[in-house]
């Protein structure tokens, strides 16, 4: 029986202390130095040949770029399976870090390797230039980047080279180079989340035969083609009607759908929803609606229940006011 090797550098409790004295930047800088020293000390003494799970959880930014890059090199060399970088300010996806850490660019730098040989890869940064083999990346199955800047080119590289990658999460990237994401071909990806990425405008998923779950926010152009296993979708946006249009080709076979709607024209949106031509096979539906005083939530509820004959659970979340994050939850089990 093999033991699971986990390196979880979770300092979320310290983040609460930082939030309490946010007006003192020197306090955050001091805590960052302590955190970096802690991680470096542990890694220097760590003797395991492989790492199953590697997690960094602290409010780090570009000032820690070199150290974080070194940690990544270390983790990849140890054939890490699950990698998480959680650098969110206050742990909140909408609280953007002013100078975020940039996830390192990967390049195939030896263009003269033979076709059947092991390609060499490198993570390029200012502190060191270490060579990694393609096989060093083959173990990665799960990657979470929160409060980290990442480019579309890097995401494409990850999905192309990390053949076992099944779980990919990007939260709160501010990079202007992450305007579109393309998932295409025989990717092993099963779960994809792209949320609160400020410049992301387009998601195109084609021939992703293994994709089961998709989550995204504020994306104007979404193309989903040949995704036979996709049964769970979570979407947040301004217009309910636009989100339904994006998902119209999937509604007949989706099993779970969550819609977080920020507009207030619920009555108009219900009318649009009822015009969907095919029966809807949803088993679980969650609506997070910012409704106005004139909107009929009863009509909204009854309309969805009539349109979803297979519905087993319906959850309606309604904030009590536009300024308060206090919700009324309505659960209906059928």
UniProtKB/TrEMBL annotation:
Alphabetized InterPro entries for the sequence: At1g61320/At1g61330-like, LRR_At1g61320_AtMIF1, LRR_dom_sf
Pfam families: LRR_At1g61320_AtMIF1
At1g61320/AtMIF1 LRR domain: residues covered: 42-322
Protein's UniProt name: OLC1v1018016C1
Organism: Oldenlandia corymbosa var. corymbosa
């Amino acid at each position: 029986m093999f033991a699971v090797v986990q390196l979880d550098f979770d300092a979320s409790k310290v983040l609460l202390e930082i939030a309490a004295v946010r007006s003192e930047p020197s306090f955050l800088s001091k805590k960052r130095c302590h955190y970096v020293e802690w991680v470096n000390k542990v890694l220097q003494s760590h003797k395991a040949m492989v790492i199953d799970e590697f997690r960094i959880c602290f409010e780090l930014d570009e000032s820690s770029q070199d150290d974080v890059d070194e940690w990544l090199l270390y983790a990849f060399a140890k054939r890490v399976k699950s990698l998480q970088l959680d650098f969110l300010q206050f742990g909140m996806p909408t609280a953007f870090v002013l100078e975020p850490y940039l996830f390192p660019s990967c390049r195939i730098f030896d263009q003269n390797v033979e076709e059947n040989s092991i390609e060499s890869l490198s993570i390029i940064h200012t502190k060191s230039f270490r060579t990694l083999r393609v096989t060093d990346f083959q173990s990665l199955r799960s990657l979470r980047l929160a409060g980290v800047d990442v480019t579309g080119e890097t995401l494409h590289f990850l999905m192309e080279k990390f053949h076992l990658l099944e779980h990919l999460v990007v939260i709160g990237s501010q990079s202007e180079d992450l305007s579109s994401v393309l998932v295409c071909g025989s990717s092993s990806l099963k779960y994809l989340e792209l949320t609160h990425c400020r410049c992301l405008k387009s998601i195109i998923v084609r021939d992703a035969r293994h994709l089961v779950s998709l989550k995204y926010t504020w994306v104007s152009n979404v193309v989903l083609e040949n995704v036979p296993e996709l049964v769970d979708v979570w979407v947040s946006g301004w217009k309910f009607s636009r989100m339904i249009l994006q998902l119209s080709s999937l509604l007949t076979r989706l099993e779970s759908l969550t819609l977080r709607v920020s507009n207030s024209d619920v009555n108009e949106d219900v009318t649009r929803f009822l015009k969907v031509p095919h029966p809807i096979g949803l088993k679980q539906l969650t609506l997070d609606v910012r409704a106005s005083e004139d909107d009929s939530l009863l009509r909204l509820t009854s309309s969805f229940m009539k349109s979803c004959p297979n519905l087993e659970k319906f959850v309606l979340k309604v904030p009590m006011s536009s300024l308060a994050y206090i919700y009324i939850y309505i659960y209906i089990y059928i």
